[in-house]
Structure formats: structure tokens, C-alpha cells
Design a protein that fits this description.
The complex is a heterodimer of chains A (about 475) and B (about 375). In chain A, a hairpin with a 5-residue loop joins strand 6 (about 150-155) and strand 7 (about 165-170). In chain A, the strands form four sheets. Chain A has a five-stranded antiparallel beta sheet with strand order 1-2-4-5-3, with helices on both faces. Chain A has a five-stranded antiparallel beta sheet with strand order 6-7-9-10-8, with helices on both faces. Chain A has a two-stranded antiparallel sheet with strand order 11-12. Chain A is of the alpha+beta class. Chain A is elongated. Chain A has helices spanning about 5-10, 40-55, 60-70, 80-90, 135-145, 175-185, 195-205, 220-230, 265-295, 300-310, 320-340, 340-360, 365-380, 385-395, 395-425, and strands at about 20-25, 30-35, 75-80, 90-95, 100-105, 150-155, 165-170, 215-220, 235, 245, 425, 430, 460, 475. Chain A folds into three domains: about 5-105, no CATH class; about 110-250 and about 460-485, no CATH class; about 270-425, no CATH class. Chain A is built from 15 helices and 14 strands. In chain A, helix 11 packs across helix 15. The model of chain A is unreliable at about 470-475 (pLDDT under 50). Chain B has a single domain, classed as Amino acid/polyamine transporter I (Up-down Bundle), CATH 1.20.1740.10. Chain B has 14 helices and no strands. Chain B has helices spanning about 5-20, 20-35, 35-65, 70-80, 80-115, 120-140, 140-165, 185-190, 195-205, 215-250, 255-265, 270-295, 305-325, 330-360. Chain B is globular, with a radius of gyration of 20 Å. The mean pLDDT of chain B is about 85. The chains are: A alpha+beta (about 475), B mainly alpha (about 375). The interface of A and B includes residues 467 and 469 of A.
């Protein structure tokens, strides 16, 4: 065994899958971890050429000889045993020479193929989604964005997991200050393990105490590329299909990838429906409680009489009914999420219908409350982003409590409190309520409605650093290239 | 800062200039001038334009000759000397607390009248002050965003509610447009126009924060747009009140706008009107609290949260006193107007002296 091999093996804990293959004809040892490499590549492209060709004394030409003999792409030379060990853990094979190490890529490529994302379904749009492999994800981005200005910064996160993380942005389009800030925050992450982009998201966001997501996660390559074109930064983390988009402003959580694929009228109508869903899901139960408990005069008389009749015999106050039903909906939803997919769907329907029906029959809730909670739940599910939908559902509970105490004033006060909180929020320096917070109506053309793409193709200045000063309004996307392709 | 532009400045001007006008001033104005209230409104408009010009002129002087990071606290120190300036700043902060308390108390009275008659005032005061507390943490830009985000929804809803109140209105009540009035009556009615001053003093306070991003000419134009908007909104609401009740009955009601809505839109649909009104109240309260906080910040060395709590505590206590001792709120309003008058005189004198010294050009050329 070579001296360098012994040094390398000292760095890694002995394990059954650490393979050391001495290759006497070539005067070197091959070390790799058997469970994470492609055995075919190791046998056919690494060991066979070495064994067949042997090695004459090439002196300083050894590395060149290896490069030409092995059919494994670019080799990498490492002087240090620790660096070689890191390469070993990164699914590479290490060739231990007399004085140094040569690293070759024998990574097993048996990852999941791109499939349609389950969390972000699109009606009209591409069907592929990111996978757990960062290389595949990079290829999905590059295949859509054939731009030499696509820049990348690589990080290794987690002292033990050594997770590869890549920051992507379009040079000349993304704001330099924001790119540097994202990179700085990623570099500041000092943890032992990063297993998912969700952890990175929580480490780099501006206000960790806020319930609102300040970085957008997506499974869709088209959305990521669209973000890059708008000047946002994309963070890819190995081992997860969810990539991060930063900065994120509130309105983007209510847009879907195929909004722009529809004609402007359909796209705008869909967005308005989502806005309606948002309003209903936030205010639905609270307004019902406020009107029935405090301001019944606001309800038309006929409906009020029906309401009163339907509540006859129900022993609990309306607010209890609402809270009970909301909790039941959350329970059914969470249980369905944790079940196998086929069972989960049936359970959601059966659970919802049966529970609602039994609750009404048992005299715990009124039928109208079931309708209110059902419509509210539908509204929340119409919100395209999971995080945004979840927080929308959650803020209903404190709002319900405040409304039960203060009526309509309580609802309004809570809404103003949330608005004040959102006004203090920023995502990498960009105000969370951009573009509404700046009062610049020119930037509102792609928010709740989407105006036709007449005239110039433009990109909003939303994701520019607020300190820039000149980044107001829309910039033309045409002519942005510094050199022709 | 992208947020500090002419549009947001206009919104920031609109909120204090409107103040509690639509739900607070109307009975006094109608009592003083009757159907001649349009002349009063015109006088209000003229005063607003003059004060806007003064604000822009002071901004121009500050921009050319002041330090780059000038704020209103240092401006008063420049005018009155170090200790005089400090005293004036503290006094101004206190007056802002008084005005904030007045506005808060008006809002609470309205809530008591409209929806929650039995809720303790102290609870509503605490609820009201929690919003500015959040914004104090976020700083001036968060406050500006709050104004900008809620401006259009509140304005559009308020306008829609007002327009709906003309459904069964009797426009004959608007006549006679020019009712003969004695000079004494005019003298009695005209001081109501000065209710503009507390709001204008807030505009003066916040204008220096925009001077690095706006030219005085642009700021003046934004001010004119905002003032014009306020004038139109007040005219619409006066028209609505007069058409529904006439001058005499309108003056006898405590909240004529609310009553008109109750009458026209059905009983208690005025609850919807609480949305724009409470947004306006909260916006104005935020501006008062943050203004007072900004004025005392250079002098009181304590953590910013403690400083914020000091201002909020003062404002809340004053609102509570106004609720307990009836008539105190009028004193608050008079103090705010009085301070506004002093500020007008001081700024005019200072501008004249500075203008002569520096030989600055006219505002039109900027």
C-alpha cells in the first residue's frame, strides 16, 4: 500500500464500503466508496485501462498519461489527504500516487428523472420539475437559459453533510448588491448538516421571527428561469427538488408559472380569482362571526332568520363552532398529507364529508358554518404557494379570536396589524409589499392583473436594490444583452 | 430609496392635510358658515396652497444650504439656537402627542358610537397604539409603505361610500349657495380653516426626509395634487351632508357623514365606512407618533424601544385623559393649532432672512 493511501485511510473511518484496489502495473492504489460510485465506470473506464496499459516511468508526465489513458473526463490533482478524502465522499475515485492524489469522476448517475412537480401543478406549461440531483437541476436551468451571462457561485454547506449549493444569477440583470448579500448570508451558514433548501431558506431570510416566507421555493425550472430573467437569484441545494428564489415579494406567492402562458384576459381573471380566494380564506370565518355575533343587522333579514333557525339547539357559541370546524379541516388536511397518496385523497373526501355531516347531525355545528368553513378551505387551497397558503390558513385563528372579542373592529385591527407587519418586512432589502409599497402605479401592470404584452417587452424593477435610487419603473428587456450571441 | 418619490410624498401629504376632517370638523364648519361652507372651503384651499409654497421654499433653502442629512430637529436648532431649538423640538413632540391623542380619541369615540359602546376606552387605546409600535420598529420607510399600501383601498372605499349616499339626496338643500353673512359671522367661521395647521405641521416635519430624492418643485406639485384631492374629497362630503340634511341639521349632528350613510345605505351599513375612517385615523396617528419619536430621538439617550414606549405612553395617557375629562380634546386641538401658527410665523421669518442672505432664486426655476 502506498504511503499516500495510508494517509488517506487515516482521514476516513474504516467502513465495509471503502474499497482499496492496488494496481501494481500502474504503481498506484485506487480508493473509492463502493456504495456511491458507478461500478461499471470504475471497472471499464478506470481499472481496465490501468491494468492493460500498465505504467512506464513517465516522471512528471504521469498526470498527462493518466488524463489520456482514463476515459473519465478532466482529472483533478490534490496534494492534501483531506482534500482527497472530501473528493472520496463526493462519489469520486482517488488514485493514490507516490506524492499526490488524482481524483476522477465515477459518480453513479441513477437519480430520479425530471417529473411533473406535485406541489406546483400547471395547466398550460412545461411538465418537468427539479429533481434531487443538483447536476440535473443545473442542466434544466441551462437548457432553458442559453446565456453566457448566467453566472454561478458554488458553496459547500454543512461541516458533516458537505452539501453542494449553487447560487445562480444573470450577470448584468440581477442587482449586484443583492447577489453579494445572498452569497454573504449563505457563507455565514455554519451548521453540521444541510439536508434541504428549507434550512438554507431559514438561515438566510431577513426576519426569522416573521410568519411570512421571505424566500420563494419552487420545483419548476420555468419559474426559476423566469426569476433569473427578472433579476432574481436562484439557490440550488443538492438533495432537494426545491430551489430558492430571492428576493421574494408578497405578490409573487400568488402568481403561478403559467399565468404568462395564458392570454392576458384569462391570466388576469385567474389572478383575480386567486385574490378573491385569498380574501375569502383570510376573512371568511371572521366576518361570519363578526356579523352574526355583533352586527346581525348587516345580514339580510331572510338569511338571518334562516341562520337563526339553523342554529337552533346548538349549545356552543358561533366562535367555538368556527374554531372547531377550522381545526377539523386542518386535521383532515394534515392526516391526508401523511397518508399514502391513493388513500389520502379518499380520506380527504370521506373525512370532510362525513365529519361535517356528523357534526351537523350531532348538533355541534350549524350547516351554514360547514359551508363557510368549506368555502374558506377552498379559498386557501386556491393559493398556489404552499407556504403562503399555510400562513393564510394559520392567521385565521388569531383573527377569529380577536373578532370574537371586538367584532368588525377586531377584524379590521388585526388586518391593520398584519399590514403594519408586512410593511416592516423586507427580503434582501427589497420591501415585501413591492411594488405597492412604492406607490408607483406603472409597476402594477403585472400584479393582480396582467396587462397585454403590447409594445416593449419589459422587466419590472421590483428586484433591484432599494438603495439603487434609479431603479424605478420598468426596464426594457430588449437590447439588454451586452454582446450578440 | 425607491419608496421616497413624488407619489409617496403626495400620499404622505394627503393623510395629515385631510386629518380627521370628514368625521370631525364638519359640524363646526356648517354651524359657522351654513351653506356658505364653499367659501370656507376655498379659504382652506388658499391657505393650503400658501403653506405648501412655504414648505417647498424652506425645502429649497435647506437643500441648497443645509447639511446633507438635515432633518427637522436640526432645522429648528439652526433657527433658534441649540437650547432654543431643543426646547422647541420637545414642545413640538408634545404637541404632536396631543394631536395624536386627539385623533385617537376621535376614532375611539366613533367606534363607541358605531359598534362597540361598552368596550373600555383603555383597551381600545392600547389596541390603537400597537400599530404605531410595530411601525416604530420598522422605521420611517415602513411607515411610508404603510401609508402607500393602504392609501388607495381606503380612498376608493371612502369615495364609493360617499357617492352611494347621493341616491335619495335632495339637492335643493345645497341652496342658497351664497347666503348673506355678517362680517362677525365670517370672523367667527374663518378660524375653522386653521384646523389645517396641525396636519400641515406634520408635512413640514416629514418634508426634509424627502429632500435628497425630490426637488422642491416636484414636492410642491405633489403637495398641490394631494391638497387638491383633499379639497375635492371634503367638497364631496360637504355636498353629501348638505344634500342629505341641509346646513342646520348637519351642524346639529355629531357625525353628519356617518348619519348620512346610515340614512341612505340602511341602518348600520356605516360599519363599512369604519374601514376607511379607521385606516385614516391609524395613518394619522402613526405620523404623529413617529414624528414625536423622531424629534426627541437626538436628545433622549435610551434604547429605541424605550423611547418609542415613552412617546406611545404619553400619547395613550393624553387620549385617556381626553376621554375622562370632556372638553380636554378641544384644548388639545387648540394647542396644536396654536403651535401650527407659531411654526408658520417662525418658518416665514426664517425663510425671509435666509432668502435675503443667500440670494436664492425663485422656486419656479428649480
Amino acid at each position: 500500500m502506498m504511503r499516500t493511501t495510508r494517509a488517506l485511510l487515516r482521514e476516513i473511518h474504516p467502513a465495509f464500503d471503502v474499497v482499496v484496489r492496488p494496481v501494481p502495473p500502474a504503481h498506484l492504489d485506487v480508493v473509492y466508496i463502493g456504495t456511491i460510485v458507478d461500478h461499471n465506470r470504475v471497472e471499464e473506464r478506470l481499472l481496465r485501462p490501468l491494468l492493460l496499459q500498465g505504467r512506464r516511468d513517465h516522471g512528471r508526465e504521469t498526470h498527462l498519461w493518466l488524463q489520456n489513458t482514463l476515459e473519465l473526463g478532466q482529472i483533478q490533482i490534490e496534494k492534501d489527504a483531506v482534500a482527497a478524502m472530501c473528493a472520496l465522499l463526493d462519489s469520486k475515485a482517488v488514485l493514490c500516487l507516490e506524492r499526490d492524489y488524482v481524483v476522477v469522476d465515477v459518480t453513479a448517475i441513477d437519480r430520479r428523472l425530471p417529473q411533473e412537480p406535485e406541489a406546483e401543478v400547471s395547466v398550460r406549461g412545461p411538465r418537468d420539475g427539479f429533481t434531487e440531483s443538483i447536476e440535473t437541476n443545473m442542466s434544466l436551468v441551462r437548457s432553458r437559459l442559453r446565456d453566457p451571462d448566467l453566472a454561478m457561485r458554488e458553496f459547500i454547506l454543512g461541516t458533516r453533510t458537505r452539501t453542494k449549493t449553487v447560487l445562480l444569477y444573470l450577470e448584468g440583470v440581477a442587482d449586484g448588491e443583492i447577489v453579494d448579500e445572498v452569497a454573504r448570508r449563505i457563507q455565514r451558514i455554519h451548521v453540521d448538516g444541510v439536508l434541504d433548501s428549507g434550512l438554507v431558506e431559514q438561515w438566510i431570510e431577513d426576519m426569522p421571527w416573521s410568519p411570512y416566507p421571505q424566500v420563494q421555493a419552487t420545483e419548476r425550472p420555468d419559474k426559476a428561469v423566469s426569476g433569473l430573467l427578472e433579476g432574481r437569484v436562484v439557490v440550488l441545494v443538492d438533495g432537494t427538488p426545491f430551489v430558492l428564489l430571492a428576493p421574494a415579494v408578497m405578490i409573487t406567492f400568488f402568481h403561478t408559472a403559467d399565468d404568462h402562458d395564458h392570454r392576458w384576459l384569462s391570466g388576469s381573471a385567474l389572478r383575480l380569482i386567486r385574490l378573491f380566494a385569498l380574501v375569502v380564506s383570510i376573512f371568511g370565518p371572521s366576518m361570519y362571526v363578526a356579523f352574526t355575533m355583533y352586527n346581525p343587522e348587516l345580514i339580510p333579514l331572510n338569511l338571518l332568520l334562516q341562520l337563526a333557525a339553523s342554529r337552533e339547539g346548538i349549545p356552543f357559541p358561533i366562535v367555538f363552532e368556527a374554531a372547531f370546524m377550522e381545526l377539523m379541516v386542518e386535521l383532515v388536511r394534515e392526516a391526508a398529507n401523511r397518508m399514502p397518496q391513493q388513500v389520502g385523497q379518499s380520506f380527504t373526501i370521506v373525512g370532510g364529508v362525513v365529519l361535517g355531516d356528523i357534526a351537523v347531525t350531532a348538533g355541534i355545528v350549524s350547516p351554514i358554518m360547514v359551508i363557510v368553513v368549506g368555502v374558506t378551505a377552498l379559498g386557501a387551497f386556491a393559493i398556489p404557494n404552499y407556504e403562503a397558503a399555510f400562513i393564510t390558513r394559520m392567521i385565521r385563528f388569531p383573527m377569529l379570536l380577536v373578532t370574537a372579542i371586538f367584532g368588525v373592529v377586531g377584524t379590521l385591527w388585526f388586518a391593520l396589524m398584519v399590514a403594519a407587519h408586512l410593511c416592516t418586512l423586507k427580503s434582501f432589502g427589497v420591501p415585501y409589499l413591492t411594488p405597492f409599497a412604492q406607490g408607483i402605479s406603472r409597476e402594477w401592470r403585472d400584479t393582480f392583473v396582467r396587462l397585454p404584452l403590447i409594445g416593449k417587452v419589459t422587466v419590472p424593477a421590483t428586484y433591484q436594490s432599494p438603495l439603487g435610487g434609479v431603479a424605478v419603473g420598468w426596464r426594457s428587456r430588449r437590447g439588454r444583452k451586452r454582446r450578440p450571441l | 430609496m425607491r419608496g421616497r418619490n413624488a407619489q409617496t410624498y403626495g400620499m404622505l401629504v394627503f393623510i395629515p392635510l385631510l386629518g380627521p376632517a370628514t368625521f370631525d370638523w364638519f359640524p363646526d364648519w356648517l354651524e359657522g358658515a351654513g351653506t356658505n361652507v364653499w367659501w370656507l372651503l376655498m379659504a382652506w384651499g388658499i391657505l393650503a396652497v400658501v403653506l405648501g409654497w412655504l414648505t417647498a421654499a424652506v425645502m429649497a433653502i435647506n437643500r441648497d444650504h443645509g447639511p446633507p442629512q438635515l432633518h427637522t430637529a436640526s432645522m429648528l436648532e439652526t433657527m433658534l439656537g441649540r437650547w432654543g431649538g431643543r426646547l422647541a423640538n420637545f414642545l413640538w413632540a408634545f404637541v404632536l402627542c396631543l394631536y395624536g391623542a386627539r385623533v385617537l380619541q376621535s376614532g375611539i369615540e366613533l367606534i363607541h358610537y358605531d359598534v362597540l359602546p361598552y368596550t373600555p376606552t383603555s383597551v381600545l387605546i392600547v389596541l390603537g397604539l400597537l400599530i404605531p409600535l410595530q411601525l416604530l420598529v420598522g422605521g420611517f420607510d415602513a411607515l411610508l409603505r404603510y401609508c402607500a399600501v393602504l392609501f388607495w383601498p381606503a380612498l376608493l372605499l371612502g369615495l364609493a361610500m360617499s357617492v352611494l349616499c347621493f341616491r335619495r339626496a335632495d339637492f335643493a338643500n345645497l341652496f342658497p349657495l351664497a347666503n348673506p353673512m355678517q362680517a362677525g359671522q365670517w370672523l367667527g367661521a374663518l378660524p375653522h380653516v386653521l384646523q389645517l395647521l396641525p396636519g400641515w405641521s406634520l408635512v413640514v416635519l416629514y418634508t426634509p426626509l424627502f429632500q435628497a430624492w425630490l426637488s422642491p418643485g416636484t414636492a410642491f406639485r405633489a403637495y398641490l395634487f394631494a391638497g387638491g384631492g383633499v379639497l375635492l374629497l371634503m367638497a364631496l362630503d360637504f355636498c353629501m351632508v348638505l344634500a342629505n340634511f341641509g346646513a342646520f341639521e348637519g351642524a346639529a349632528l355629531q357625525w353628519p357623514v356617518i348619519e348620512a350613510m346610515r340614512m341612505q345605505l340602511g341602518i348600520h351599513l356605516d360599519v363599512i365606512n369604519l374601514i376607511p375612517v379607521l385606516i385614516a385615523v391609524s395613518g394619522l396617528l402613526n405620523l404623529c407618533v413617529f414624528g414625536a419619536y423622531m424629534l426627541i430621538r437626538p436628545y433622549i439617550r435610551m434604547p429605541s424601544v424605550a423611547r418609542g414606549c415613552l412617546v406611545l405612553g404619553t400619547c395613550g395617557s393624553l387620549a385617556w385623559i381626553a376621554d375622562v375629562y370632556v372638553g380636554t380634546s378641544k384644548l388639545y386641538e387648540a394647542s396644536s393649532i396654536g403651535f401650527g401658527c407659531v411654526l408658520v410665523v417662525a418658518l416665514s421669518v426664517w425663510f425671509t432672512v435666509r432668502h435675503e442672505r443667500s440670494g436664492a432664486g425663485s422656486l419656479v426655476r428649480r
